[in-house]
Specification:
The model is unreliable at 213-232 and 308-320 (pLDDT under 50). Helix 3 (41-56) crosses helix 4 (64-78), helix 3 (41-56) packs parallel to helix 5 (81-98) and helix 18 (409-417) packs across helix 19 (425-437). Strands 15-14-11-18-16-17 form a six-stranded mixed sheet. A four-stranded antiparallel sheet has the order 4-5-3-6, with helices on both faces. Strands 8-7-9-10 form a four-stranded parallel sheet, with helices on both faces. It has helices at residues 7-23, 25-30, 41-56, 64-78, 81-98, 106-123, 132-146, 153-174, 176-181, 186-204, 218-227, 253-260, 284-292, 305-308, 337-345, 362-370, 387-391, 409-417, 425-437, 478-487, 507-520, and strands at residues 4-5, 104-105, 237-245, 263-271, 274-281, 295-304, 326-334, 350-353, 374-380, 400-403, 440-446, 451-453, 456-458, 463-467, 470-475, 496-501, 525-530, 538-542. It has 21 helices and 18 strands. Strand 7, helix 15 and strand 8 (350-353) form a beta-alpha-beta unit. By secondary structure, the chain is α+β, with helices and mostly antiparallel strands. It folds into four domains: 4-204, Alpha Horseshoe (Serine Threonine Protein Phosphatase 5, Tetratricopeptide repeat); 234-308, Alpha-Beta Plaits, CATH 3.30.70.1150; 328-412 and 419-437, Phosphotransferase system, mannose-type IIA component (Rossmann fold); 440-542, Hypothetical Protein Tm841, Chain: A,domain 3 (2-Layer Sandwich).
Length: 543
């Protein structure tokens, strides 16, 4: 029996939990409610915990609070998709509860889980029951109830797992879409895998082994990445540390502003009593002097990246003066060369590769934002599953960030068209969001499993047309399905039809669909673009 856990034990338990989840990611992806090729919950959750595992691997820690602080910060920056962001918020809440704990007992862990659940619920604008949120909540409640009889950690974790499993089993009764698909909630199942992986370590002392190989220590990962960019290293010292704030109410914004001019690749994560700092700089001494003003420093790590490559260069070399920042900048998520070119032609500074099945992380979006030399940056996620990850960027940069909650490529394009450089950022954000809300989007793709259309059961591989989550057309030919899809979208008020054809559609087929639309909807302007997007034969929009 185990009554307390120290930093080493918690770190190993987390690695075991992460590896269990990674091993089961394809199972989670297959628990996709809708028969479209976007079953990415497993991939998103596994990449989120892998980001945290990489920070833990190969390191030692002095307290369980320090372990959870690293997990919370790394998982936030590595969060992908809604499930990844929610998972990072669970860890963030746990970190808050354990921040002062050198070791933790069962009560500490149970209360940390409860705080994690509360933090995750606060992070979601409209929490939905029957999801990973309710599974986490019910699991935490089960663990807390166990403490009425015993305070042993393994027993408490087993009670948490039992309660979470019962909650997971109920998810199809809560959400009809799950029941119709014959599956449980994939995010909730992911929570179960994490808990089970941690239990394996606590019961056996052995970390679950990853099937796709070991997690590399963070130093190894960074060294390999550096080998590809040695000629581009402008700032020599990779400087990382944690500030234990003297005043919990003190803001890190002034500090971040002061050190930003001294380097690049800067990440400053302010988590109330602790600030996590990462920057590439030629003046680590200056960065540390500024940091000491906020509190004591721990986990200081400074690597000379140029020395690692045997390519030292003078720090006294003259530097070209930096251009003044523009008032506005833009970042958009898109997949497909044609989509990327279209956004860049419209003035988007950074196009982040992503979309269905490949949601970019918060860190990916943050890195793009940091490359934009502008005071205010508008972010267009262009996918409902990327909005939450984009929103986390607001707390990780000193730039003025507006996330326009676009859910599709056409919405992102309409948002860009609504931008007016002569008006304020706030007015632009409102206008861009309103423009996006007026767009109706449809997608033509293929079914990855059997599905129902009306009272008919349709086979896997069928071409399907969707508006939102609703399948309204199916057939054997993408163009025919696109026509049926448009028939349900165009009405008397429609003025513009946009058609984006994917990498698996020929120019000739796209031209035929354009001719059909021009003849059928003669009162509408028809615009056809070669988006070259994967997975989706056509993305169509009506305004």
């Amino acid at each position: 029996m185990i009554y307390t856990i120290d930093a080493a034990g918690l770190s190993q338990a987390f690695l075991s939990a992460a590896n269990k989840l990674v091993n089961c990611k394809n199972i989670l992806n297959d628990l996709n409610v809708f028969p479209v090729p976007d079953g990415d919950t497993g991939s998103n959750m596994s990449m989120t915990v892998t980001a945290a595992a990489a920070e833990l691997s190969g390191r030692s820690f002095s307290s369980v609070g320090e372990v959870m602080n690293v997990v919370a910060g790394a998982s936030l920056r590595g969060a992908r998709g809604n499930s990844g962001v929610i998972l990072s918020q669970l860890f963030r809440g746990m970190s808050k509860r354990l921040k002062d704990c050198e070791i933790a007992d069962a009560l500490d862990l149970a209360e940390a889980m409860a705080e994690g659940v509360a933090t995750a619920y606060r992070a979601v604008m409209k929490p939905v029951e029957g999801t990973m949120l309710s599974v986490s909540r019910d699991g935490a409640a089960g663990g807390a109830a166990y403490l009425d009889n015993d305070n042993e950690i393994i027993g408490m974790l087993k009670a948490t797992i039992d309660a979470a499993q019962k909650s997971l089993d109920k998810t199809p009764e809560i959400l009809p879409a799950l029941k119709a698909a014959g599956v449980v909630d994939s995010g909730g199942q992911g929570i179960l895998y994490l808990l089970e992986g941690a239990l394996t370590y606590l019961e056996t002392g052995t970390v679950v082994e990853r099937k796709d190989g070991e997690v590399l220590p963070v130093a190894t990962v960074k060294a390999k990445a550096a080998q590809t960019s040695d000629a581009d290293i402008k700032f020599a010292y990779c400087t990382e540390f944690i500030i234990e704030k003297n005043n919990p109410k003190a803001s890190s914004k002034l500090f971040a502003s002061n050190i930003q001019k001294k380097g690049d690749s800067m990440v400053v994560v302010d988590d109330e009593t602790i600030i996590k700092v990462h920057i590439h700089t030629n003046n680590p001494g200056y960065v540390i002097e500024e940091a000491i003003k906020l509190g004591a420093l721990i986990n200081i790590k400074i690597d000379n990246m140029k020395y690692q490559h045997n390519s030292l260069s003078s720090e006294d070399a003259p530097k070209a003066p930096a251009e003044p920042p523009a008032p506005f900048g833009f970042a958009a998520v898109a997949a497909g060369e044609g989509m990327e070119e279209l956004f860049k032609d419209m003035g988007v500074d950074q196009v982040i590769l992503g979309g269905q099945t490949m949601n970019p992380s918060t860190d990916d979006i943050l890195n793009a934002v940091n490359k934009i030399n502008a005071e205010t940056v508008f972010i267009m996620p262009n996918n409902k599953n990327i909005i939450m990850a984009a929103e986390q960027v607001c707390d990780l940069t000193d730039k003025n960030i507006f996330v326009i909650p676009t859910r599709s490529i056409p919405e992102g394009i309409s948002a860009m068209l609504a931008f007016a450089p002569e008006v304020s950022a706030e007015d632009n954000a409102s206008a861009m969001q309103e423009a996006a809300s007026l767009v109706k989007t449809g997608n033509v793709t293929f079914a990855v499993r059997e599905f129902k259309l009306g009272d008919k059961t349709m086979p896997k591989g069928k071409i399907i047309g969707l508006t939102g989550k609703n399948i309204i057309a199916a057939g054997d030919d993408p163009a025919s399905v696109a026509k049926d899809l448009l028939a349900g979208m165009v009405d008397d008020e429609s003025a513009v039809i946009n058609v984006f054809y994917g990498e698996d559609v020929s120019d000739e087929d796209a031209d035929k669909l354009r001719e059909y639309c021009e003849e059928t909807y003669e009162d509408c302007d028809v615009l056809v673009h070669n988006g070259k997007q994967p997975l989706y034969y056509y993305i169509v929009s009506v305004e």
